[in-house]
Amino acid sequence: MNIKEEAQALEPELIRLRRYFHQHAEQSWQEFNTQKKIEEYLDGLGIPYEEPYKTAVIATIRGKNSSDRLIGIRADIDALPIQEKTACSFKSENDGTMHACGHDTHISILLAAAKLLSEHKDELKVSVRLIFQPAEEFIEDSGAYHLKTVPAVLECERLIGLHIFSSVPAGCASLQDGPIMASADTFDIYIKGIGAHGGHPENAIDPIQAGVEIVQSINRIVAREFNPLTPNVISITQFVSGTTSNVIPETAHLAGTTRSADPAVRDAFEATLQRVCDAIALDTKTEISLSYHWGCAVTINDHEPAETGRRAAKKVFGEDKLLHLPFSTGGEDFSKYTNPKAYLVLGGGLADPAHQWPQHSPYYEIDESVLKLGVEYFCQYIEEWTQELGL
Fold first, then answer.
1. Which residues sit opposite 191 in a β-bridge?
2. 382 and 316 Cβ atoms separated by less than 8 Å
3. Tens digits of per-residue pLDDT, 331-378?
4. Whether the predicted pLDDT of 316 surpasses 90
5. Cβ–Cβ < 8 Å for 263, 298
6. What does residue 94 show for φ and ψ, rounded to 5 degrees?
7. Is the Cα dihedral 384, 342, 115, 377 positive or negative?
8. Residue 350 CA: distances (Å) to CA of 91, 117, 120, 367, 372
């Protein structure tokens, strides 16, 4: 198998697949057409698959010479609740839904890798499991939470994946040991006071004032209680209260997210927020309740799987294109899988800075020429692991 040449030959099909999934974007747990399209493609290749949970698909490639040594490759398949604002010809047809994080490319790369591997399945000395995972973007109820205990996943000796990034130059990659992406949890804070006339605040217990004090206290905690050399973030992303200009409202609702590179800090976030809420409730005479939603842990690359990946990546990208990227406070539910694992960052940034929009932007775009590199990486990883095993 000439991996580089055959991955290059798949480029037109890769781009066609990516544009189809981009145009037919579906949000978490609603990926019904996406699941159908994945299964149709696998049917065409004669690759057996199962539907272990809702919109997930898990397929297995095993040739006549394949051993029982099993590696899993995972791709997330969901889109975001974002109204697309790009001018591309394959713009999302689903209103308010967009592949603004590159999961359309992940699906396409894994399907094309499946095609290449299936065409050479009788040359494979290991078995390969393809995991198409829904709902990566749903922090409170993500797909990995449900798939991590599925026997077909637990059987994988290793689990690998990749994520395309528009902020990393096209053709570059990164695969580092240890923590690479932050934990990602969310929370809601509900404040109840007493509503009154805006001109008579003495008759009210103001939930807005309590909410402001919560925001200020959280900012102080991040600045003064956490190690400044370790990435830690608590962001208030919603503050909803009141309906008009002359009424002090009865309630307020705050929502936000916590992020950390340190699992111990992540474990302490809930208690920290509860302490703030209790203190401010006492100080302002409001009733404050916290609802904390555990999402994904810190994404950590294990050394041995990552070392194999680096050997593969050097052959695919070239040693000069392997970057050491700073820790990202974005989250990734790949962290929930308990298998030994390695997660590659694939550079897909466009050359024109005016089009280098960040992940989750309604203008998000990527350089499609790098898709074939993702296919090549997955196949080269399997070759490297096979050699390590002495098969």
1. 252, 288
2. no
3. 999 999 999 999 999 999 999 988 899 999 999 999 999 999 999 999
4. yes
5. yes
6. -95, 110
7. negative
8. 18, 29, 33, 5, 16
Residue pair 317/171 in contact by the 8 Å Cβ criterion: yes
Using the 8-state DSSP alphabet, how is residue 285 labeled?
A: T
Q: Rounded CA gap, 353 and 378, in Å?
A: 29
Mark out the alpha helices in the chain (DSSP H runs): 3-9, 11-23, 32-45, 103-119, 143-147, 151-154, 207-224, 263-284, 303-317, 371-389
- Can you tell me the distance from the alpha carbon of 343 to that of 306, in angstroms, rounded to the nearest whole number? 8
Tell which residue, 73, 76, 74, has the closest CA to residue 55.
76
* pTM, two decimal places: 0.94
With vertex at residue 345, the alpha carbon angle to CA 158 and CA 233, rounded to the nearest 5 degrees, is 100
Contact 110, 41 (CB under 8 A): no
| Cβ atoms of residues 44 and 116 within 8 Å | no
Strands 57-61 and 49-50 come out as: antiparallel
Which of 1, 12, 14, 2 shows the shortest CA–CA distance to 375?
A: 14
The predicted-structure confidence for 183-227, as pLDDT tens digits, reads as follows: 999 999 999 999 999 999 999 999 999 999 999 999 999 999 999
Q: Quick one: DSSP state of residue 369?
A: G
Which amino acid does the sequence have at 43?
D
Q: Which tokens hold the place of 109?
A: 């790369």
pLDDT in tens, 280-306: 999 999 999 999 999 999 999 999 999
Q: Which residues pair with 169 in a beta bridge?
A: 349
First to last CA, the chain: 16
